[in-house]
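Design a sequence for this backbone.
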């Protein structure tokens, strides 16, 4: 059996966030299942060998288990590490998009370059060239 971890996020304006994630981080749409009223029931975005699942936040059984960064005052219980080939290039796009930069780009102790930011709905992303699989 081939097991892996696939993060899953919920957004209020999922179509806009899909566009933002693709434009700024380089994700590619793999699957987008429309929901009611311009929502997204389920989406899968691919980046290299990784996958992110997302959908529109809903007041349903699963939605009752989640909250938004907006409702927690921006506090997170997890962040996503996004491995990229050129962190400086991604950083420039993210800054140009107007996203909140939490840590400016720089060299990091584990090797490579990295920065952290909030996406437009407040989820925290750490983006850098460090590849944890490279050993």
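Sequence:
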């Amino acid at each position: 059996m081939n097991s892996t971890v696939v993060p899953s996020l919920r957004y209020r304006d999922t179509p806009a966030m899909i566009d933002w994630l693709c434009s700024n981080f380089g994700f590619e749409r793999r699957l987008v299942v429309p929901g009611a009223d311009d929502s997204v029931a389920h989406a899968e975005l691919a980046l290299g060998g990784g996958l992110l699942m997302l959908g529109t936040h809903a007041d349903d059984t699963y939605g009752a288990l989640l909250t938004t960064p907006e409702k927690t005052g921006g506090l997170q219980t997890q962040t996503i590490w996004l491995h990229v080939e050129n962190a400086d290039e991604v950083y420039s796009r993210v800054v140009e998009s107007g996203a909140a930069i939490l840590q400016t780009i720089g060299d990091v102790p584990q090797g490579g370059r990295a920065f952290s930011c909030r996406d437009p709905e407040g989820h925290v992303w750490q983006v850098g060239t460090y590849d944890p699989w490279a050993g």
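The radius of gyration is 15 Å.
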